[in-house]
């Protein structure tokens, strides 16, 4: 699964420039999440497809943490 984070990498042959996308989505998403101190986790779903989980840190005092 690590390969899907490489810019322009495509897992599925049916996805190409003529059908849409350039292969940068997961690479860009991971870069954004990492810049915010988080992690982007991927796993294959048992019935097909891919599940993505974004984990971001909670910083006290930002209004987003539990009081």
Describe this protein's structure.
The chain is α+β, with helices and mostly antiparallel strands and 67 residues long. The chain has one domain (2-55). 16% of the residues lie in helices and 18% in strands. It is built from one helix and two strands, in the order αββ. The protein has one helix at residues 25-35; strands spanning 39-44, 50-55. The chain has a two-stranded antiparallel ribbon. It is extended, with a radius of gyration of 15 Å. The termini are far apart. The model has no long low-confidence stretch (mean pLDDT 78).
**What is the rounded distance between the termini?**
37 Å
Secondary-structure element pattern, one letter each? HEE
Number of helices: 1
Strand content: 15-25%
Q: Spatial order of the strands in the main sheet?
A: 1-2
Average pLDDT, all residues = 78
Number of domains: 1
Structural class: alpha+beta
Radius of gyration: 15 Å
Main sheet record: 2 strands, antiparallel
Globular, elongated, flat, extended or rod-shaped: what is the shape?
Answer: extended
Number of strands: 2
Fraction of residues in helices? 10-25%
Low confidence ranges = none
Write a brief structural summary.
With 67 residues, the chain is of the alpha+beta class.
Secondary structure: elements and pairs:
Blueprint: H1 25-35, E1 39-44, E2 50-55
Antiparallel strand pairs: 1-2
Key words describing this protein structure:
single chain; 67 residues; alpha+beta; two-stranded antiparallel sheet; 1 helix; 2 strands; 16% helix
